[in-house]
Automatic annotation (TrEMBL), chains A, B:
It comes from Rhizobium loti (Mesorhizobium loti). One of its GO terms (molecular function) is sequence-specific DNA binding. It holds the Pfam family AsnC_trans_reg. InterPro entries: ArsR-like_HTH, AsnC-type_HTH_dom, Dimeric_a/b-barrel, Tscrpt_reg_AsnC-like, Tscrpt_reg_AsnC/Lrp_C, Tscrpt_reg_HTH_AsnC-type_CS, WH-like_DNA-bd_sf, WH_DNA-bd_sf. It comes from the Bacteria. Keywords: DNA-binding, Transcription, Transcription regulation. This is DNA-binding Lrp family transcriptional regulator.
Amino acid sequence: MDEETDGILQNRPAARDLDAIDRRILGVLVDDATISYAELGDRVGLSPPAAHERVKRLRRSGAIRNTVAIIDPRAVKKALLAFVHIDTRGWGKTPELMAVSQYPEVEEIHTVAGDTCMLLKIRTEDTRALEGLLARLYETPGVTSTRSYVVLSTYLERPVQPGITETWPTPKHMAEPLY
Amino acid sequence: MDEETDGILQNRPAARDLDAIDRRILGVLVDDATISYAELGDRVGLSPPAAHERVKRLRRSGAIRNTVAIIDPRAVKKALLAFVHIDTRGWGKTPELMAVSQYPEVEEIHTVAGDTCMLLKIRTEDTRALEGLLARLYETPGVTSTRSYVVLSTYLERPVQPGITETWPTPKHMAEPLY
DNA sequence: CATAATGGCCGTATTCTATTCAGCAGAGAA
DNA sequence: TTCTCTGCTGAATAGAATACGGCCATTATG
């Protein structure tokens, strides 16, 4: 349904500021995007077509990136979470980033202020799979480990989720290997 | 539309294993949950009612936790990301966790293997808001800082996102202050 | 072995929702 | 004032979700 897919390092044209109703719409949809436009309109005080028009505009402007199902990792046997720092001194950035972002187990990549590393959030089935992934990762030219730690137990993960400063294209083959 | 909301530390009844079609459905919906059941059925080789039945079952079993809109933090002026460790020695866990998970800026809470800390992922508007949040956080009894770092630039954030080992209820007032 | 029961699928029918459209009202500009 | 633009409403239409009856394969059961 999204007619445009993200390009490499594409920056959106800077959307117009949101008003109060827009923010309330986002607040509703970030919790549950399965409601009807009639219901949404009720909650924010608009008619169904008006609510629909707002949502369309929010999608066009990029404020709503997309609408997705949130999967329980236990159901697909992907419940081990790890945060891994990799040293990025001497990187050419783009090709290495592309390589790293190819792995479907890598959910997030951030640069860290005041440091020469990047932080990866990685979700795998078990420690064996994690070790395998790290081994493959460190074969990537320019990637070396600094430190990492594994998550024992997760108490909160909120459904808020987006590319921020620069957005990398989500590898489309992800759907296959992950699930 | 979800008839049941998560309870405190509630564990789902352990869903039956997923077959190949279930996994393909999840793989589709985790990318885009706005498609019709006709389209979904096409992609996985089922009729629309059969695809619908599968998705209903996946929802009932908890494999699909919910369906949400992914918001661009820039649009709502929440683009500063920080990872913060807090020391948790001497915690009673539950009340402190409840207090910490009340802040809508706190997106994730994890315990770390082999350490006495918890890792928080925090998203705020700017450094001022982050400092304010940290100040309030450290007023929480039992919460002390160990180390933290701020994310300069995010290259990848994938729409996969769930409560894992134990699930905390998402504070419902979140919708108001955040958006 | 025969046969009943079950689970999952399909095609059709119906209900409900999304979407389009015409017209109206308020805000801002000339 | 008057024009224009934007965003709203309610009604009409197109389209999707959902319910239902029947079919087939697999598995349990006498």
